[in-house]
Amino acid sequence: MPFCANENQRKMHELYIESYRTGSMEAHKDSQRQWIEDKGPNGESNQGWIETYIDPENIRAYYEAFVAIVDKEQSKMFKQLADNSEVIIPKLPWPKE
User: Of 4, 60, 89, 90, whose CB is crowded by the most CB atoms within 10 A?
Assistant: First the structure.
């Protein structure tokens, strides 16, 4: 907790702890809501039973955990690519459909 950069991150980690201690799926879902609200961090992390797309019943999920550090220069290039996507996409070599 002492290394959280802001209130969103602190609340997210509190909810992780609650979820792990109690097994509460609602606490886990709330942690994910906090993660989404943490806009533009220099570093971020996420953990839990996140990926359910493998199971058509949405009962099983893959556990994942990651820590990511933002590369500001590369992020600028990706933003520029996204900003120019309306010009770039029509030039790609596949049918419009």
Answer: 4
